[in-house]
Design goal:
The structure holds 2 protein chains of 2 kinds. By secondary structure, chain A is an all-beta fold. Chain A has no helices and 11 strands. In chain A, the strands form 2 sheets. In chain A, strands 2, 4, 5, 9, 10 and 11 form a 6-stranded mixed sheet that branches. In chain A, strands 1-3-8-7-6 form a 5-stranded antiparallel sheet, with no helix packed on it. Chain A starts with a strand and ends with a strand. Chain B is built from no helices and 11 strands. Chain B is globular. The chains are: A mainly beta, B mainly beta. Chains A and B meet through strand 5, strand 9 and strand 10 of A and strand 4, strand 5, strand 9 and strand 10 of B.
Chain lengths: 111, 112
């Protein structure tokens, strides 16, 4: 079982600021996904990255997959209160349909 | 609207009693999963299914069993509930590959 470490665990910033959260492992992933979870609900898929070095943008969110396929980052530009939530990364091994999740970054955007 | 529902949403039960949680999907997805979410541990896989009557264990399967007799239903049973099984349980579905999971809204289970 590969371990996914997310940092920071908690992040609280003012509305309008930029931020980056990280997901790291010593193992190589076949693909990596980012989810956002709000209180009382299940995680919701934001993006899947599958190619080393890949960058995907979703409005103000930019996701990057490391060249070595061992790490990923999520950058949010001009954070808004609606971005508040628990951000989870999750990864699969080659040929394995099971996702392993990191413990998450709890993000709070202060209006 | 996501095509996956969990029941019940909340349950309180006594130690030693059996408990069954239900996950129902209308998406006809092949793969179904049960996770538990606990502070400091994140989401951990309990059991999963890759088809009708095809199931396998995850990393925290002790004390749990599952059944999938139809594509749309995946049941999780706590054979004899313990306080350590107090948690939020999530079901997820997937078509496989890199398409990601769709999660249910969760069941908050308290064992007293």
């Amino acid at each position: 079982t590969q371990l996914l470490e997310q940092s920071p665990q908690f992040l609280s910033i003012q509305e309008g600021e930029n931020l980056t959260v990280y997901c790291n492992s010593s193992s190589v992933f076949s693909s990596l996904q980012w989810y956002r979870q709000e209180p009382g609900e299940g995680p919701v898929l934001l993006v899947t990255v599958v190619t080393g070095g890949e960058v995907k943008k979703l409005k103000r969110l930019t996701f990057q997959f490391g060249d070595a396929r061992k790490d990923s980052s999520l950058h949010i530009t001009a954070a808004q209160p609606g971005d508040t939530g628990l951000y989870l990364c999750a990864a699969t091994n080659f040929g394995n349909e099971k996702l392993t999740f990191g413990t998450g970054t709890r993000l709070t955007i202060i209006p | 609207d996501a095509g996956i529902t969990q029941s019940p949403r909340h349950k309180v039960t006594e130690t030693g009693t059996p408990v069954t949680l239900r996950c129902h999907q209308t998406e006809n997805h092949r793969y179904m999963y049960w996770y538990r979410q606990d502070p400091g541990h994140g989401l951990r896989l309990i059991h999963y299914s890759y088809g009708v009557k095809d199931t396998d264990k995850g990393e925290v399967s002790d004390g749990y069993s599952v059944s999938r007799s139809k594509t749309e239903d995946f049941l999780l049973t706590l054979e004899s509930a313990t306080s350590s099984q107090t948690s939020v349980y999530f079901c997820a579905i997937s078509v496989g590959g890199d398409y990601g999971y769709t999660f249910g809204s969760g069941t908050r289970l308290t064992v007293v």
